[in-house]
Amino acid sequence: MKLISEPAIAIKISKMKHRVRWKHRSVIQMGIDQTRMVLDDGKQDQGQFSFMVIGDTGTRSTYTQHPQRLIAESMLKHRDDCAFTLHTGDVIYVVGSSEYYPQNFIEPYREFLFGGENPRSIRYDRMLFEKPILPVLGNHDYYDVPWIYRLVAGSTKSLRKLFKYKDSEIGWHGSNQGDAFARAFIDYLAQIPEAELAHHFDSFYNAKTDTGRVLRYLPGFFTRIPNRYYTFSYGGIDFFALDSNTFNVPTPIPHTREGDATRHQLEKRRQQIEQEEVEIITAIAKLDRENPEHTEQLEALTGKLNQIDEIKIDIEKQLQEPGNLVYDTEQLEWLTNRLIASWQNPEIRGRVLYFHHPPFVTEATKWHQAQTLAVRHRLREVFDNVERVIGKDRNQRPIVDLILNGHAHCLEYLTTADTGHADTGINCLVCGGSGHRPRRQREDNNQLMEVVDGKQRKVADSHLFVGCNGYNSKRRLPYSFVRIDVQDGTPPRFIVRPYVWERYQKQWFSYELDPFEF
Fold first, then answer.
1. Are 328 and 247 in contact (CB under 8 A)?
2. Considering the entire predicted model, what is its pTM?
């Protein structure tokens, strides 16, 4: 039975456009740019500032201590020094359901919210941030529950017990095609009556930029982002928030002899992991979530099931029929134009991209996924197009200074090698270890290889990996976040400070890794 579904890219795009009244006549008449905002905290013009990065958080724990809450408590020590926190997606597991925002987001991050001293009184669609948490959508924030699962799991007690690994954090409906995320974080214009739109725009879209009027994000007063992808400037750095869920689809496998062989292998692999899934569900059904002796085993088994879900979805994306390739060319064209404009603006001294799916990663379940390659190649095309306009003479600076991602449940620092394209020399941080069970690094070496222009070529090096390691009683589960200090000057220098909470032999230990700079 298919327990998790993902809406098609065209549906994701159309639903999100509806929620923000994309290019509504009032938007056009008032000259509003719906993909830009001003983060107005009174300090946005300072050249030296700090921010934090988290990702893959929104889950409750079966441990006596909640790892997500431990990370949040460590973040509090830096809250006053950091201007904002970037969230790289998967805000809520397993399917982005609105009913899990109170326990899986509001409660852990209550000190970042207005009224957080009484978190139970905060509605997920009325959150007001005192310290900004600026998220992008992860794949789990888009996931839904097929109606047949709701029917059988809701009406049959034995099946609810069998599927308890899902029902524990899946709710009855899922994300409603990303609607819960939109109501939690985005300025949901569709719920504002037509007659009140002009007043709303006058009240909250009163910041003026070279692209028109834009939303003004005011901590403690109005804390909504304008769209599923957007940009803002802070301290002379342009930040670009992307929705990678709409351009991560792989190129379909052609119906050739070689392609049909690949399809057969993928279908065989899908059958194998579905059988493995049944075996794991059966094992879970024999365990008691309330029994502390079963805690570690339950956590490990549910982690494996989440991995199986992701593998099956990745296989489904590869098996789509040729000719049906649909991805978000509008967003990628927007990114191309905004990066060009950023390079042409003498007031901008650096550029940071953040989105969910990492183009470069060595976490064992993600590095070989077709979605990883799809994101890598689509961004590479964007960067190549930017370079054709701005030229290669950039004093050896990369197109962007830093790419931030989640999706892989780890903390990893990589740099891209000479790829033969404009994605050369980029610093990449994968920050997906802030709450959901950490995963292992692949067993191969720390170099990522790829066939580029018909030749085998190194495209990235991994310098730091913090994820699951060891086995049985020696297993370590490190959860993490980073603080990034941006130095004044051009080009800017970035100092990365990683912080870790690690579970080892049923105890928790916290430590700080050595900072590194680029």
1. yes
2. 0.94
Phi, psi of 482 (to 5 degrees): -130, 150
Q: 127 CB contacts (<8 Å, ≥6 apart)? A: 106, 113, 184, 185, 223
**Number of domains observed in the structure of the chain:** 2
Domain that holds residue 184: 9-249+326-517
User: How many CB atoms within 10 Å of residue 79?
Assistant: 14
Chain-centroid distance, C-alpha 55: 6
Burial label, 340 (beta-carbon count in 10 A; 0-12, 13-18, 19+): middle
Per-residue model confidence (pLDDT) at position 167: 46
Helices 257-285 and 295-318, axial angle in degrees (round to 10): 160
Contact 421, 380 (CB under 8 A): yes
Q: Is residue 227, in this structure, part of any structural domain at all?
A: yes
Q: How far is CA 353 from CA 265, 339, 405, 415, in A?
A: 35, 10, 9, 14
Per-residue pLDDT reduced to its tens digit, 462-491: 999 999 999 988 999 999 999 999 999 999
106 vs 296: which has the higher pLDDT: 106
Run of H or E residues at 158: helix 157-162
- On whether both 387 and 480 belong to a single domain, the answer is yes
Lookup: tokens for 138: 């992860």
The 10s digit of each residue's pLDDT in 332-357 is 999 999 999 999 999 999 999 999 99
Q: Tokens standing for 453?
A: 């222009």
Contact 497, 518 (CB under 8 A): no
